[in-house]
Design goal:
about 625 residues; alpha/beta; 8-stranded parallel beta barrel; 6-stranded antiparallel beta sheet; about 20% helix; globular
Length: about 625
């Protein structure tokens, strides 16, 4: 964060306001003129001297809201207590600084107006006049925003990733449709020793698959080598392992990462935003400021933040599952601190709902209430999903009741066995469309739970995962996949210390995403498996315009061109190696009707993707 010109400082009685500039990964000062579209900026306010443990709780009994206005648009953005305003470095628990993060989405002049009020539980009140105005309430100002200077994978070049009522998310600036590929493990990614206040919080007896009581915090030492000069850190070199881990994922072409922000009572018992394991109303300012440094770096790498707000074991932890004071306060703090990031998924719960092994669960009304609260409170209306159980019975029971619900944008599918991925993805795409709200259907975990995606030294080819899960989702019209590491194998879902153990699946995921982006108008295409006759083959098509066929082991394949006439080029792509398009035994076919696509260029026992396009469009 960087201080700006004094002419943006407004003095009110005994408090002052400083407008801070967009945060980059470097800590060099910038002037107000460097405000840029899609870059984070921060307003800091000097208010009452208090602390995390003050009797008059600064998180609950104060409410900061800032209205940002540009022409005909207004964002009501919640703020937060920030201790001394530099807690990531100082580990401060007390101070007189409140802050608000904002990401402007338009160039030109913006205005802001501040509401700061005090009262019992006012932070979770919807009444704009609740409590009393205090300190810097009524402050206002303006600033000017210029175009972003970023390019490439940096999200500040692409704009906010948005749900737009279609099968795919889309970037607001570039209008590029998004397909995700990334990591689902470790779920306790933020259980990292370099974060303040991070420790194993329970001595309860652990069940199979949970963390051991003597577990160490994550260190990610293997990824220190991936940290680069100029990358962020804190407190004289902390953070290099986790920052390096994000660098590694981005360099492998991954663009999403799944992580819990609350696993009290869950599997890992080492991640929470509070000042302690047993606290529910007070937040650790320095820990959350350090999280923010890491997550801001993820923005620069083009990585979507898949924020999972609870586990199946703890979905009744806050307010007994209701959206009461505890849950609202928790959501509000997450939104105030992290909703400004340009690619956010709010996942309303890992394995949410009843199952035999987790009978104490939220009900449908409770699920809907928390989704609605987070949608209403988040000024940016970020993407909202719900992670399912693996068993079809539980998945259908919960998701069927949510079809058409206005505040849910899609399922976060957990599926076991993987062979069901393709048909399940097609089902939820069609069912949600019919219900009146099209879902983005992502695959976020494959079972069985003890297996997941195996390390490369056990399963170097990843044939089943690649075919049934990765391409199974994409060729059905799904939004992409993240990879879960089963708990019975090294570097598992709770104890993973290096992402290099799954190097090959990152590569194969990148190959798939590249193929879709480079060769297909996938947002205009549909699953069309009935157009091909090879057993187990997938077909994804915009009939008459483009066809992609995934065929197992180079099996002989016929494509039905239906009534579409003319000459079509036939090319082959190897999804395991990512090698470019090449000719097979048949390079051209003519419609209408069924046509034989021939044999692949080589290695007929490998899987292949066949690309068929009209010759005149080449």
């Amino acid at each position: 964060m960087y201080k700006l010109n004094n002419n943006l400082i407004a003095l009110l009685c005994f408090c002052s306001v400083c407008l801070l500039s967009c945060q980059s990964t470097e800590d060099a000062e910038e002037e107000a003129s460097t405000y840029q579209k899609w870059h984070k900026m921060t307003l800091s306010f000097e208010g009452p001297q208090t602390s995390e443990q003050a009797e008059d709780n600064p998180f609950l009994n104060y409410r900061l809201l800032v209205s940002f206005t540009h022409e005909d648009k207004t964002y009501e953005v919640p703020g937060f207590y920030a201790a001394d305003g530099n807690a990531a470095e100082s580990s401060a628990e007390n101070g007189n600084i409140w802050q608000v993060h904002f990401t402007p989405d338009a160039e030109g002049e913006w205005n802001y107006a501040v509401s700061f009020r005090q009262g019992d539980s006012i932070a979770v009140s919807d009444d704009s006049q609740a409590g009393e105005a205090v300190a810097f309430d009524g402050s206002s100002g303006s600033f000017t925003v210029s175009p972003s200077d970023k390019e490439g994978r940096d999200l500040r070049a692409k704009g906010r990733l948005q749900y737009i009522g279609e099968r795919y998310l889309r970037f607001a600036e570039t209008k590029e449709y998004y397909l995700k590929g990334g990591t689902d493990s470790p779920e306790n990614l933020l259980g990292y020793e370099d974060f303040d206040g991070t420790y194993f919080g329970s001595d309860e007896e652990q069940r199979e698959g949970e963390a051991a009581a003597d577990k160490d915090m994550h260190r990610y030492e293997d990824h220190v080598q991936d940290w680069h000069e100029g990358d962020p850190g804190w407190q004289n070199g902390k953070g290099k392992g986790l920052i390096g881990a994000f660098n590694y994922l981005a360099e492998k072409g991954m663009n999403s990462a799944y992580f819990l922000t609350l696993n009290i009572g869950g599997d890992g018992k080492d991640v929470w935003p509070y000042t302690g394991y047993d606290e529910r109303y007070r937040f650790d300012c320095s820990k959350l400021a350090q999280w923010e440094k890491v997550l801001s770096h993820a923005d620069s790498l083009g990585i979507m933040l898949h924020i999972v707000i609870q586990e199946t074991e703890n979905e009744l932890l806050l307010d007994g599952g209701d959206t009461g004071t505890q849950r609202k306060l928790y959501f509000r703090e997450l939104i105030a601190r992290f909703a400004h990031h340009l690619a956010v998924t709010w996942n309303m719960g890992e394995e949410n709902g009843y199952a035999d092994f987790t009978p104490n669960a939220q009900n449908d009304a409770q699920r809907k209430a928390m989704m609605s609260y987070i949608k209403q409170t988040d000024p940016y209306k970020n993407f909202v999903v719900l992670h399912t159980h693996a068993a079809p019975t539980h998945r259908y029971e919960i998701l069927d009741a949510l079809l058409g619900f206005k505040d849910l944008d899609g399922p976060s599918l957990q599926i076991s066995p993987p062979r069901d991925v393709h048909e399940e993805t097609k089902h939820w795409i069609a069912a949600s469309e019919e219900a009146g709200k099209q879902w983005v259907v992502n695959l976020d975990e494959i079972g069985p739970h003890y297996h997941g995606v195996l390390p490369d030294n056990i399963d170097p080819e990843h044939d089943t995962v690649r075919y049934e899960s990765l391409w199974g989702n994409l060729m059905a019209g799904g939004g992409g996949a993240e990879w879960y590491f089963g708990y019975k194998f090294p570097n598992d879902d709770l104890n993973a210390e290096t992402f290099r153990t799954r190097n090959n699946i990152w590569d194969q995921t990148r190959f798939a995403l590249n193929f879709f982006h480079e060769h297909l108008p996938f947002w205009e295409m549909q699953a069309a498996d009935t157009l091909v006759d090879a057993e187990g083959a997938y077909c994804f098509a915009k009939p008459g315009e483009v066809y992609a066929i995934y065929t197992r082991y180079g099996a002989a394949t016929q494509l039905d061109l239906e009534d579409y006439e003319g000459a079509y080029q036939v090319q082959w792509y190897n999804p395991q190696t990512g090698e470019g398009l090449s000719d097979g035994s048949v390079s051209e076919v003519r419609g209408p009707g069924e046509v034989a696509l021939g044999a692949p260029p080589s290695a007929p026992k490998e899987d292949w993707v066949i690309l068929v396009k009209p010759l005149e469009k080449q």
